[in-house]
Amino acid sequence: MLETILKIWKTGTVAPKRSLPEPQGARRGTIDFEGTACLVCGNCEHACPTGAIRIDGAPRNATMEIQYDKCLFCGVCVATCSNQALLQTNELRIAARTRDELRVRKGRMQ
Ligand code: SF4
Ligand code: SF4
User: Domain of 66?
Assistant: First the structure.
């Protein structure tokens, strides 16, 4: 019993760690962002149906935040991007313990 409690304390789970297979084929996953290609036009932020994208700051040092707790993985932001700064990956494994961990800063725009 004590061993199980210690394991939960250290790892947060009692299940053994498993290595998962790589995602196969065309799947709509997380959004990748290339900050140097971004024009800070705001098209993606306005087009996102759930408000999952936030662009903050002045154009020269703006940052993008993607909130995966709101994201539908629909790809609309990628389709509306003015300069191919966004890319949809096939990564779907984004489990997190807190909502904050699902809010990812995608880097500084140039
Ligand atoms: S994939 Fe869809 S829901 Fe997610 S950030 Fe882009 S537009 Fe918003
Ligand atoms: S990621 Fe694309 S659509 Fe979004 S602000 Fe940058 S250039 Fe515009």
Answer: 22-108
